[in-house]
Amino acid sequence: MGMLDRAGARLTSRPEEAEILVVNTCSFIDTAKQESVDTILEMARHKTEGRASKLIVAGCLVERYRDEIRKNIPEVDAVVGTGELESILEAAGMERPALPAAPSPFNILNSGAPADTRAGREALAGTHKAETAGFRPEGDLREAQGRFRRDAWQGAAHLLPTYLYDESTPRLISTGRTSAYIKIAEGCDHPCTFCVIPNLRGKFRSRRFESVVAEAEQLVARGVREITLIGQDTTCYGEDLGLKDGLATLLDRLARIENLRWLRFLYAYPNRITGRLLETIAKHDNICKYLDVPLQHASPAVLKRMKRGAGADIFLKTLDKVRAAVPGIALRTSFIVGFPGESQEDVAVLEDFVREAKFDWLGVFSYSDEEGSNAYSLDAKVPKRSIEARKRRLMKLQQGISKQAKQQWVGRELVILAEGESEETPLLWEGRTEFHAPEIDGKAYINDFGDLESLEAGRFYRAEITEAHDYDVVARVVSGPL
Ligand code: SF4
């Protein structure tokens, strides 16, 4: 969006107004592929029956079915994979504008990165190019073992993406003026047998430390107050740059940006939650007391077949360590149910673990059998009906846990980011506390503005939690905006 905007395109979210339609796709599980294909077909109708003259398909579906898309949906004029973002301009038939100057050495030198790291040395020498970042030895090893192969996907033959954006890449923020995501790394070297994300996104590679800091500073200067760091595995950040405890170092640096009120990261890998990372979360007021750690399962037998390892006992110890280091921290996780060979005993282990772990937020995915994943060839597939029943049971169990946990919030005074009128009724506003990540967790509804006549979206208020429901809470504004 940023590149198209910079090249002079006027963007609209209404397909009936557009001359060029771009569908950004996802393809890591069945439901995502289906949604992507449905959207492409819907947009194709706008091209054949409406005013649009061009249809571009971008994103992960292209990495997986590059030739198939063009062959089977002739309305598609161009495809743009995740590693070739800059070709969106050519696909749209637009001229590439002159790029802004590279960041000055002054910015790089004053960013605080350890000068003895590869990133630091290369940044100082001005030789490091984000697009040619190196890889971790684990990534090279897994590549030799065939981890990233796409042979199972007809029509996917294309180079594995190596692209990384940087702070000078034009960006349009679509998440409002207060909140923004920053992707700090791309790709993944883990061997999880159910997952094709590495085949789609390539080997793990980190953005330069300086680049992330510069982007965060630019965003905050433009009024962003909440930054969420993302990547397929954020806790690996910096390993390919020679940084030790790279994520902790990065958080520590970003937390010092003046006017940045909330900083968080998503997608921690369980065995990479270091003491230093927890200390860093605890140390800074503006790092949200929030940890998202997708565990995928709790039965050691299932986790072994998933090639993730560990199990309920080890996870409970990790959670104890996290809660001791950062009191009051909100924990989010997600699980996959119905992995091949998952027995009733495995489900019982998972349910017991969920009862004991008491997560604040929990998501459950149904296992999706993906061609190209190692699990695809495993026997003992679980019937769809059983998968859905297991999912429903786990969600029901969590509902009770969540309800109890939210009751404990009643009477507390918390800072709430007001996001706007509720979609359900204009009498309520929706907001979030630091314990809610954008878009994925429950909500804090505001039904009483206190002494204020109105609230302003994107501003922070102090509020008292007055009611709790299964996942959401209700709040009364006490003071603000802050
Ligand atoms: S760590 Fe996440 S992205 Fe990487 S292979 Fe495992 S599930 Fe997939």
Describe what you observe in this structure.
By secondary structure, the protein is α/β, with parallel strands linked by helices. The protein contains 15 helices and 16 strands. Helix 10 runs parallel beside helix 11 and helix 14 packs parallel to helix 15. The longest helix has 24 residues. About 7% of the residues have low confidence. Bound molecules: iron/sulfur cluster (SF4). Iron/sulfur cluster binds next to helix 8.
List the helices and strands and how they pair.
Layout: H1 2-6, E1 20-25, H2 30-49, E2 54-59, H3 60-72, E3 78-80, H4 88-92, H5 105-109, H6 118-125, H7 137-144, E4 179-183, E5 185-186, H8 197-201, E6 205-206, H9 209-221, E7 226-230, H10 246-254, E8 262-265, H11 275-283, E9 290-292, H12 300-305, H13 312-325, E10 330-337, H14 344-357, E11 361-366, H15 384-407, E12 413-421, E13 429-432, E14 444-448, E15 460-468, E16 473-479
The structure holds iron/sulfur cluster.
The site of iron/sulfur cluster has 9 residues, from helix 8.
The number of distinct β-strands equals: 16
Helical residue percent band:
25-40%
Characterize the largest beta sheet: strand count, sense, and whether it forms a barrel: 5 strands, mixed, barrel
Tally of contiguous helical segments: 15
Terminal CA distance: 32 Å
Unreliable sequence segments = 101-132
**Radius of gyration, whole Å:** 23 Å
Instruction: Specify the structural class.
Output: alpha/beta
Coarse morphology: globular
